[in-house]
Amino acid sequence: MTPVTRILVVEDSQDIADLIAHFLQGAGYVTTMATNGSDGLKLARATPPDAIILDLMLPDGRGIPFLRRLRAKGDVTPVIILTALDQISDRIEGLNAGADDYLVKPFELPELKARVRALLRRDAGRGGSVLEVGRLVLDDVRHEATRDGQVLDLTAKELSLLHYFMAHVDEVLSQEHLLEHVWDEHTDPFTNTVRVTVGTLRRKLAAAGGDEGPLETVVGRGYRLEVAG
Asked: What is the pLDDT of residues 44-54, one digit of tens each?
């Protein structure tokens, strides 16, 4: 399975966010974007990124509260603050709140990419986080999931979906809920993409375990990952 590195860009300027996203996609990263802190937190929790690029001046408040709430949950995702605030006091506040790096606007895209790569290398050395549910193990750093020790050949979306199920084990998750938290705001709400992706993920889990697999359909309500895995 080819590793996928996800970058979350929390930036209120759509033009700047699009510029960053396009540049990082060209470097092989998968990007998601939010224009305010509330949406950024939802995205960070739904599909945990490998790194976050965070503006401080957001429409629902400065990025510092976003960062503190993230760290208060035990989230150690590397964060680069990208802001026009260039005072020493601003830098100190951002770093003390839990940021890993601080880059002042205007900035050069190649430097931003280099800083992202440096943080990802450092984070990989810390071992990252591993989710374990029954017979399932998902390694966020290696972007790899196994069942009974067998590596699952998952697409990036299937891996994100499995991660979400494992973070909400034994909960019944509706199609609408999954569409909102695992996909993005541009996805057609009438699409069958959730049903299709859940179906392929279920088949791959079952094949690896030689059984029916831990993903079940709860008729009329949605889907559930059983704790047995």
From this structure: 888 889 899 99
